[in-house]
């Protein structure tokens, strides 16, 4: 079965995680997006981070892969750190960008992201997990399509 692939960065500095507010969904998300054809997930994570935030990152490691079999979706999650760049508050893909305390994540965040941020703090070796889309995301996805 063929999966769509996404790549996302978890960047944590001083117990704060960097999140972007998406334009296509009114929710906070990790910086990242679609892995293009002939692109490695790590390359996509670096590219998407720059496009969405203005920051250049270096990948520390891929800590987990999350597979949603009902949507044929595979998400690669990377622990990354900023090496250069200037913050862009808004882009064509994002409405806002903020640093959030790890113990005060926003209410309107993509639901699986809370778990993935926690996993970034605890997983030391690569893991693979099965996930399913939250009902809220399904509803928003259907509303956005119309």
TrEMBL record:
Pfam families per record: NUDIX
Entry keyword annotation includes Nuclease: no
Gene Ontology molecular function: hydrolase activity
Domain Nudix hydrolase: 2-123
PROSITE patterns named among the record's database cross-references: NUDIX, NUDIX_BOX
Entry-linked SUPFAM superfamilies: Nudix
InterPro entries found in the cross-reference section: Nudix_hydrolase, NUDIX_hydrolase-like_dom_sf, NUDIX_hydrolase_CS, NUDIX_hydrolase_dom
Keywords: Hydrolase
Cofactor: Mg(2+)
PANTHER family in the record: 8-OXO-DGTP DIPHOSPHATASE-RELATED, GDP-MANNOSE MANNOSYL HYDROLASE
Family: Belongs to the Nudix hydrolase family.
Name recorded for this polypeptide: Nudix hydrolase domain-containing protein
Species lineage: Bacteria, Bacillati, Bacillota, Bacilli, Lactobacillales
């Amino acid at each position: 079965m063929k999966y769509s692939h996404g790549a996302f960065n978890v960047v944590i500095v001083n117990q704060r995680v960097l999140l972007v507010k998406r334009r296509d969904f009114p929710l906070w998300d990790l910086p990242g997006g679609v892995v293009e054809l002939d692109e490695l997930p790590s390359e996509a994570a670096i590219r998407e981070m720059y496009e969405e935030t203005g920051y250049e990152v270096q990948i520390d490691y891929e800590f987990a892969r999350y597979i949603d079999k009902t949507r044929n979706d595979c998400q690669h999650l990377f622990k990354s750190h900023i090496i250069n760049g200037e913050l862009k508050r808004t882009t064509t893909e994002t409405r806002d960008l903020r640093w959030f305390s790890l113990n005060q994540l926003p209410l309107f965040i993509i639901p699986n992201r809370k778990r993935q941020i926690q996993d970034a703090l605890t997983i030391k070796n690569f893991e693979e997990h099965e996930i399913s889309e939250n009902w809220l995301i399904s509803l928003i996805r259907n509303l956005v399509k119309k």
